[in-house]
Amino acid sequence: MNQKNKSSVPQSLRFIFRRTAAHDKKIFFYSFLSIPFQVLDRLADIYLIALIVDAATHHEEERLLLILLVFALYQLLSGLMMRFTEWQLSTRNYRSKMKFLSRYAARYMRTEFTTIESTAGKDLAQRAKNAMAGVDYRDKSSVETAFLQCAGLIGSICGLFVYTGIISLLDPLILLLLLTTSAAGYLLQRAMVKYDQKDKRRYIPLDRKLWYLVKELRDPLSAKDIRLYGLMGWLRRLFGETLASRRKLHAKRSRLQYGVLVLINLINTLFTGYIYYYLIRQYLAGGIDISQFLLYFGLITGFNGWLMSVIDGIEALHMTLLNIDDLRRFDALPQPSEAEAPPAEQTTDGGIRFEHVSFGYQEGTNVISDMSFTVAPGEKIAIVGLNGAGKTTLVKLLCGLYTPKEGCILLGGRDLRTLGREELFRRFAVVFQDIYLLPTSIERNITLSEQGDGDRLSEVLALSGLQEKISSLPDREQTLLVKGVLEDAVELSGGEIQKLALARALYKGGEIFVLDEPTAKLDPIAEQEMYLRYGELTKGKTSVFISHRLSSTRFCDRIFYLENGVITECGTHDELLRLGGAYARLFETQSRYYREEGEVR
Ligand code: ADP
User: Which of 249, 502, 544, 586 gives a 20 to 30 Å CA spacing to 601?
Assistant: First the structure.
């Protein structure tokens, strides 16, 4: 993935140019507005001293005054322009950063689910996030500053050229010496840039590990296990080791950078020392007068300043280009097509068809293998199987979170890939085992909208079995959730959260109802109630019920028994028992356990 998408400087610049232009075209104008002033300011300083000395030594008072007046006016104009562009750019760049961040968030939401789950995808996402937030030593190289840096670099190059031209008029030998210094500086800086490219490959996995650990240590869910199982010492050691490796890399780079800068400074001092010696000799021999001596002296010192600015500018721009490259590669991650929504009459069928579907998380291994089946509109299907059989993967494929590697999935006769994402997700009401709770009221957590439908809410609360709990809360549906964020929030139990998930799915509605182990955290009474109400819950919908509790699937029309990603048995509960296969054996084992438990009591 990395090699294929490796980008060149023009590619990266084109990318950032297009993206920035989409929200603010004036950034370019303001970024480049200061270039002439950058060059003229420094030149004016040098010429001012030479001109003043010249006018003073010739006792030309009027000329002296005129020089000072023109210079003061120029300074005023330049100062005003510089402050104005700074003000414009700080506001516009900040806004631009926010736009990049929101685009990143939006793309992250739409990127293929398998990509986000993969290590490579996580790496890219981490890099792209760093590219905008500037969380490490690349602080000043956040992508939105690219044009400011380009402008700074162009300004410095212009300055270098102007000074080179003027100095070459004095003596080509001096120019040759100065250019040698530049070449040495440039080559050293390039070596540093190459090092940075390698360095990045080393520190990104460490950053990912660090952020993961920081997140886990903050998460109350993991904090519970960390305390009870005494994992703190081990985690702290792991964190310390990772941090030490990261610090080592950072320190190594800083040392190297310091060494390169010292070397550049040494070369500079050596060459410019010789040039100053040459100038003093010229002055003493009467080849140049005092004002010319001051002018050339200033120009050579200024040349060094420009040289350092060019070198620093290349370094900063290079870092920014690396960041842009990261963002560009994240941006290029495949996203499922955003097809147009089909006409309404095609969207209400609810029939499902798998045609030779295969899927795997890694190349060469399939978790779902060549699977074909049809579910009629309104049919109630149960998918059962042991842990790791592929049940959740199958559901994620069905909902369009994963895309089949081979074969296709049809909903109401339409290939899933041809449906718009929003349209596709609208068709499903899904209850996964893990649910994302929003830090807001219970009502909002269920309706997921500002203005919920009160009648509908009461209906789904009753159906999901959550009504009783809500009645016991002083603020009822308005009770806040997520204690970590809201102080007055309540903590729901695992089973209550599961009921809330069910209520959310019922409220959302859709032609296909998918329940992934929806009773795993319910008590036996709540579980039994749910089974009894299953017909009511799924009325008029196609439903897919996933469970490893075989007795819970009797109320379904058909049962698919899944083994290693293949449906090995299919039929009603009684048919499968008569078949005497894996399902029957498993059912016998489970019911024996319950019988024995009953006998003990
Ligand atoms: P089930 O729901 O039947 O318990 P899953 O569909 O969750 O099974 O998992 C099927 C297989 O796929 C398991 O071997 C599991 O380790 C693997 N698997 C599940 N999710 C991922 C993932 N995100 N990345 C890699 N492998 C996965």
Answer: 586
Pocket of ligand 1 contains residue 393 by CB under 6 Å: yes
Which residue minimizes the CA distance to atom 19 of ligand 1?
A: 393
CA of 407 to the centre of ligand 1 (A): 19
Cα distance between residue 207 and residue 218, in whole Å: 17
The answer to whether 437 and 471 are in contact (CB under 8 A) is: no
536-556 confidence digits (pLDDT tens) = 777 788 999 888 777 667 788
Distance CA 511, CA 544 (A): 11
How many whole angstroms separate alpha carbon 64 and alpha carbon 71?
Answer: 11
In short, whether 93's Cβ falls inside 6 Å of ligand 1 is no
Q: Lowest-confidence range among 348-362, 456-470, 509-523?
A: 509-523
Q: How far is the CA of 388 from the centre of ligand 1 (A)?
A: 6
Q: Provide φ and ψ at 517, rounded to 5°.
A: 45, 55
Contact of 148 with 90, CB cutoff 8 Å: no
Query: pTM, whole model, 2 decimals?
Result: 0.67
Instruction: Choose the residue to mutate in 117, 358, 367 for probing ligand 1, maximizing ligand atoms within 8 Å of C-beta.
Output: 367
Write the secondary structure of 196-218 as one string of H (helix), E (strand) and C (coil).
HHHHHHHHHHHHHHHHHHHHHHH
pLDDT of residue 358: 96
* Residue minimizing CA distance to atom 20 of ligand 1: 393
Write out pLDDT tens, residues 116-157: 888 888 888 888 888 886 544 335 678 888 888 899 899 999
Cα of 140 vs centre of ligand 1, distance in Å, is 41
